[in-house]
Structures are given as C-alpha cells and as structure tokens.
TrEMBL record:
<dbReference type="Pfam" id="PF00400">
    <property type="entry name" value="WD40"/>
</dbReference>
<keyword id="KW-0853">WD repeat</keyword>
<dbReference type="GO" id="GO:0007010">
    <property type="term" value="P:cytoskeleton organization"/>
</dbReference>
<dbReference type="GO" id="GO:0005634">
    <property type="term" value="C:nucleus"/>
</dbReference>
<dbReference type="InterPro" id="IPR019775">
    <property type="entry name" value="WD40_repeat_CS"/>
</dbReference>
<feature type="repeat" description="WD">
    <location>
        <begin position="40"/>
        <end position="82"/>
    </location>
</feature>
<dbReference type="InterPro" id="IPR052060">
    <property type="entry name" value="Bromo_WD_repeat"/>
</dbReference>
<protein>
    <submittedName>
        <fullName>PHIP protein</fullName>
    </submittedName>
</protein>
<dbReference type="InterPro" id="IPR036322">
    <property type="entry name" value="WD40_repeat_dom_sf"/>
</dbReference>
<dbReference type="GO" id="GO:0006357">
    <property type="term" value="P:regulation of transcription by RNA polymerase II"/>
</dbReference>
<keyword id="KW-0677">Repeat</keyword>
<dbReference type="GO" id="GO:0008360">
    <property type="term" value="P:regulation of cell shape"/>
</dbReference>
<dbReference type="InterPro" id="IPR015943">
    <property type="entry name" value="WD40/YVTN_repeat-like_dom_sf"/>
</dbReference>
<dbReference type="InterPro" id="IPR001680">
    <property type="entry name" value="WD40_rpt"/>
</dbReference>
C-alpha cells in the first residue's frame, strides 16, 4: 500500500512539522533540515486531527477514526496521555475534530455520533459532582417557520434566541436539582424557586 499523508501541522514555534500517515503513524520532522526526529505510534486507524498546543511547542493533540485522542510530547517523542472514545452500546466514536482553548488549559473534540468531548489539564475533582447526563429541556423540540420564513420554537412560537434560558434535564427529561440549573448562562443568580421548572 502506498503511504499517504492524511494531515499536516506545525508546532507553535515552527521548529517541527508533524505529518499523519495512513499507516497509523505520526512523523515529527525538523522543519529546517527535513530530518525525521520521531515516529509516534499509538493510533489504530488513520489520523485526521493534529492540533498543536497554543503556546507550548512540545505538546500536540492527535485524534482519528479509531476513537483515540492522544496528547504527545514532541520533544521526547512519547505519549503523555490518551483517551479512548467508547460509546456504551455502540462501540467507539471516530473523532472528527479537536481544538485547544486559547489559554491551553482545555481542548474539545467532536465525534461521529455528534458528541462534544471536553478535556482539561489538572484535577477533575470539581466535575466529579456533575450529573452524567445533561440536556437542555428544549433540545430536540420541533422548529417551524413563520410567514416571513423566520425560525420559531413550535411550542412557544418564539425565536429560539429570544427564549428564556433552558432548564437542564436528564435523558428522560427529568429536571436536575437547582444547583445544576445555576450552570446555565442566565440562571447563575436566580432565586431557588426560579430554578425549579413548572412541569405540566
């Protein structure tokens, strides 16, 4: 099989060029001499996502159709950390894109199932008390168009961007406790009684 490059990225200081190759390897090249510095192995399918850290030239994120998201140390040519995107009852989700936050403390990925994966550096303890499932109560509501062809929420007849902040619910539509509702932009300073949805 002829080797093909599937993706290319530069490190933040332009000292290295990283290529993803269809043999499931990443190659790190000296951008001035063209010399091969490292061959990085860890993926089990083709890689289409290479995202350099916004200010640390040693760090690179890679992801691909194998569902693996890998954080690499380019200076040493080693894997720092990896995550496998296993979706219960469906197998793994191929990762289609990855972007790092401007401060370099978080990165987010999207997968073939439409999921958003958010990662961060440091302790995850503040997220341990967050519910496993969070949806807005208005997710998946039907939309309609008015006489001017503007989009409206079918139930409220309002433009979606003019609707009040939604409530957080689980997969079955059951509202989460008030402490979670304050996570929704626009509900941070609401009184307790304003954080309990009126069902019916």
């Amino acid at each position: 099989t002829k080797l093909k490059v599937t993706m290319v990225a530069w490190d933040r200081h332009d000292n290295s060029v990283i290529t993803a190759v269809n043999n499931m390897t990443l190659k790190v090249w000296n951008s001035f001499t063209g010399q091969l510095i490292h061959i990085l192995m860890g993926h089990e399918d083709e890689v289409f996502v290479l995202e350099p850290h916004p200010f640390d030239p040693r760090v690179l994120f890679s992801a691909g159709h194998d569902g693996n998201v890998i954080v690499w140390d380019l200076a040493r040519g080693v894997k720092i950390r990896s995550y496998f995107n296993m979706i219960e009852g469906q197998g793994h989700g191929a990762v289609f894109d990855c972007k790092c936050s401007p401060d370099g403390q978080h990165f987010a990925c999207t997968d073939s199932h439409g999921h958003l994966l958010i990662f961060g550096f440091g302790s995850s303890s503040k997220y341990d008390k967050i519910a496993d499932q969070m949806f807005f109560h208005s997710d998946y509501r039907p939309l309609i168009r008015d006489a001017n062809n503007f989009v409206l929420d079918e139930q409220t007849q309002q433009a979606p961007h003019l609707m009040p902040p939604p409530f957080l619910v689980d997969v079955d539509g059951n509202p989460h406790p008030a402490r979670y509702q304050r996570l929704v932009p626009g509900r941070e300073n609401c009184r307790e009684e304003q954080l309990i949805p009126q069902m019916g």
